[in-house]
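User: Sequence recovery, please. Input:
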């Protein structure tokens, strides 16, 4: 069994967060010995959510946990603001600037334009943009220097999940769908399909991916758990899949509801956080989850700001630096063939070594 499948990555890294140094395009700064409770009592960390809210059991919640972890260590109280709509992004960020925040974390690609605008007007403050490169004109350069992007090459972990799903499937059909067709969503779907395709090549199999063909697929049009998301999930279930990967925060709840109502034996794959641990209602259904250690990378960025060591070079989470990974198999551990698990373990090591390349928009 892989190292990341034997334990929850997020649970493991949270326990060891002060000791781990993340590497990437720019390494997330390591905590210094001088950092600690009471050393930055006047330091004010702040965070603003996407409209999914801080209890989405996904990227907003994970990012908040990272800020909370840093705030507790520093002995300070953070300001945490939820957005209820896209029109809240810029005003929320501007209000945090007005309240004297030293570092502001903006969660999700939807906040990119507003964060660039506010950071450009406040170059002396530290901004952390989670899950976006802050390149809204797509010229390959960051649009505001004060921003540190935190990015995650989830295609690598999704590749492993795709291979696992293909090997687990008894009907040779697996499915995926997303919230909206943005790179941070389709990167999961791309990696997942590549993993299934690789399984087919290696095993001379013909496992089909429903919902994403590598260029286009099924999307709900948003990131809410609502009837539209349930309908998209149901349409994929009706095509006979026995593994389903919903990508887009709370939309997994709609997928879970559709799975339950179908009465079929369908395994769910989570994203961002370990759904088995975050949502007990999923525990009989979650095969694994594709993890992004957003809590740890956010924690490291906030601590670097508190220590006066903040840098604005982009961080990219990978399998190698444990910024992405797979959650434990939990209740499915006895249902997955040990040989398949060993193959996933080998693939993980080949990706880390560079022997096997998984394509993503971050390349």
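Assistant: Recovered sequence (363 residues):
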């Amino acid at each position: 069994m892989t190292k990341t499948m034997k334990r929850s990555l997020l649970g493991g890294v949270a326990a060891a967060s002060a000791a781990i140094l993340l590497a990437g395009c720019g390494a997330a700064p390591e905590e210094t010995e001088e950092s600690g409770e009471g050393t930055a009592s006047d330091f004010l960390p702040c965070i603003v959510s996407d409209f999914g809210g801080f209890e989405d059991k996904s990227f907003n919640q994970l990012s908040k946990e990272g800020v909370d972890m840093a705030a507790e260590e520093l002995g300070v109280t953070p300001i945490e603001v939820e957005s209820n709509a896209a029109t809240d992004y810029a005003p929320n960020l501007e209000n945090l600037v007005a309240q004297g925040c030293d570092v502001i974390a903006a969660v999700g690609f939807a906040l990119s334009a507003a964060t660039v605008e506010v950071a450009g007007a406040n170059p002396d403050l530290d901004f952390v943009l989670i899950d976006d490169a802050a390149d809204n004109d797509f010229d390959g350069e960051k649009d505001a220097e004060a921003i540190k992007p935190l990015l995650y090459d989830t295609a690598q972990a999704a590749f492993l999940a795709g291979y696992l799903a293909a090997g687990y499937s008894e009907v040779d059909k697996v499915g995926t769908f997303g919230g909206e067709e943005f790179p941070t969503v389709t990167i999961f779907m791309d990696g997942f399909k590549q993993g299934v395709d690789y399984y087919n090549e290696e095993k001379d199999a013909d496992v089909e991916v429903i919902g994403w063909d590598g260029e286009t697929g099924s999307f709900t049009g948003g990131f809410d758990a609502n009837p539209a998301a349930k309908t998209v999930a149901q349409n994929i279930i009706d095509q006979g899949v026995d593994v389903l990967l919903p990508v887009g925060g709370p939309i997994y709840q709609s997928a879970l509801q559709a799975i339950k109502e179908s009465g079929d034996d369908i395994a769910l794959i989570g994203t961002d956080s370990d759904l088995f641990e975050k949502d007990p209602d999923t525990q009989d259904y979650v095969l694994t989850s594709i993890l992004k250690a957003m809590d740890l990378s956010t924690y490291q960025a906030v601590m670097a700001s508190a220590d006066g060591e903040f840098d604005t070079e982009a961080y990219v989470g990978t399998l190698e630096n444990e910024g992405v990974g797979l959650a434990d198999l939990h209740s499915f551990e006895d249902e997955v063939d040990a040989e398949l698990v060993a193959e996933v373990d080998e693939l993980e090591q080949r990706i880390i070594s560079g022997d096997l390349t998984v394509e993503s928009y971050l390349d």
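The first helix runs from residue 3 to 6.
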